[in-house]
Amino acid sequence: MASQSCAAALLGGLANVNTTAANFICGQLDAINQKLTDTTSVRAKNTMNIMLTNVLDAAAGGLSYYLFGYAFAFGGPSNGFIGRHFFGLSDFPSPSADYSFFLYQWAFAIAAAGITSGSIAERTQFVAYLIYSSFLTGFVYPIVSHWFWSSDGWASPTRTSGSLLFGSGVIDFAGSGVVHMVGGVAGLWGALIEGPRIGRFDRSGRSVALRGHSASLVVLGSFMLWFGWYGFNPGSFLTIAKSKRLLVGHWNVIDVCNGLLAGFAAITSGCSVVEPWAAIVCGFVAAWVLIGLNMLAAKVKFDDPLEATQLHGGCGAWGVLFTGLFATKKYVAEVYGSGRPYGLLMGGGGKLLAAQVIEILVVSGWVTATMLPLFYGLQKMSLLRISREDETAGMDLTRHGGFAYAYHDEDDGFAKPAMYMMGRIEPSPQANPL
Questions:
Q1: In 381-423, which residue ranges form alpha helices assigned H by DSSP?
Q2: Rounded mean pLDDT of the chain?
Q3: Spatial separation of the C-alpha atoms in residues 228 and 261, rounded to whole Å
Q4: Fewer Cβ in 10 A, N or C end of the chain?
């Protein structure tokens, strides 16, 4: 529609410009405009839906974590696979933990669920969010956190009974694997089973940008995440944006923000045991990991609206490997005790790296074994993806009573009546149905 308006303007102002030339010129201008304004975020017609799913992750996921998740994760004494005490926080607080520790761990649990919601955004039924969020925070994620963070976990570096994995245990200080990979791998299977959003790829298979509605909100959210990451693992964002600039030839604010988040996800594993210069290396490589995975996703027609799988899953895995390469003897001894293996490239041998590789394999395998059947079952029961009509109109209108705010989406090839496009905040009884 925008190209047609452009062509009309050219034809009206220049008598010697024919229709074909005008359409070609305007097509090129439109392509440039899409490159300059492309944003990786949810479109305006689904704003209320994505906000609701975020609230749902915190509420329903929090309830599930309270009833079951915390017990599975930290309910010791227990075996190396799963915790077995403190269901519903019974007999809690305990000598080993209090409510502040529970709330801290709850935040990690809902973060994993939130990552997954980004991968399946704009096309998923509300009931599916409710089911997967409760299952992920109440069972899938807690088992992983028990393995690597509980003092009883079989791969934990703080294990108090039995031998440490490769004499080291896995060092995943704040969750590159435990949180980010869990959410990213779960999102991978959800997005693969649902398939791409309508219009994401054209009939010839070429990628079509579905632009998010607010770069400003993306930047604001990135700053909030940046600030929040200082609570446990700062230091990886100094050069990670450069590769984005080199690839596309111009600075794109959304790409820069995603580059920052890639570095954040990667440094989370080793932030307590690496030098600042190594954190810079981690962030720089993480940006290229994200770029490579995004190119692969487009090639295989994988649609993740927020690049959550590539960013959290892929860069989280890189962060786990990075720790096995760059962890220093001094910091490992300070945090986990002397005599432990440390980074391969720092002269510490390959034992820590081997433990880190084990984490990547078991996290990927566990999440696949649990979340793949769940999403497949939801799809078979017609509980996963919304109808084509709802997806076209946007879930704010069809599922949530109206748009979050007035907007005009030029990328929406499925034109809606003007009253819905510009002036509708809440539906009116007098309005004609679509």
A1: 388-393, 395-399, 418
A2: 82
A3: 12
A4: N
Q: Are 319 and 267 in contact (CB under 8 A)?
A: yes
What is the structure's pLDDT at 24? Answer: 57
pLDDT digits (tens, 9 = 90+) for 44-77: 788 888 888 888 888 899 999 999 999 999 998 9
**353 pLDDT tier (thresholds 50, 70, 90):** very high
From 393, 280, 264, select the one nearest 326 (Cα to Cα).
280
pLDDT of residue 237: 35
The per-residue pLDDT for 326 is 98
Distance between CA atoms of residues 273 and 319, nearest Å: 12
Q: What is the CA radius of gyration of the chain?
A: 24
What CATH code would you report for 9-202+222-396?
1.10.3430.10
The pair of structure tokens assigned to 64 is 């599930």
pLDDT at 312: 95
Neighbouring CB atoms inside 10 A of 355's CB total 25
pLDDT band at 396 (very low <50, low <70, confident <90, very high): confident
> What residue ranges do the domains of the chain occupy?
9-202+222-396
- Predicted local confidence at residue 405, as pLDDT: 66
Q: What is the pLDDT of residue 238?
A: 35
CB neighbour list of residue 334: distance below 8 Å, 6 or more residues apart: none
Which H, E and C letters describe the chain, residue by residue?
CHHHHHHHHHHHHCCCCCHHHHHHHHHHHHHHHHHHHCCCCCCHHHHHHHHHHHHHHHHHHHHHHHHHHHHHHHCCCCCCCCCCCCHHHCCCCECCECHHHHHHHHHHHHHHHHHHHHHCCCCECHHHHHHHHHHHHHHHHHHHHHHHHCCCCCCCCCCCCCCCHHHCCCCCCCCHHHHHHHHHHHHHHHHHHHCCCCCCECCCCCECCCCCCCHHHHHHHHHHHHHHHCCCCCCCCCCCCHHHHHHHCCCCHHHHHHHHHHHHHHHCCCCCCCCHHHHHHHHHHHHHHHHHHHHHHHHCCCCCCCCHHHHHHHHHHHHHHHHHHHCCHHHHHHHHCCCCCCCHHHCCCCHHHHHHHHHHHHHHHHHHHHHHHHHHHHHHCCCCECCHHHHHHCHHHHHCCCCCCCCCCCCCCCCCCHHHHHHCCCCCCCCCCC
Residue 112 has pLDDT above 70, yes or no: yes
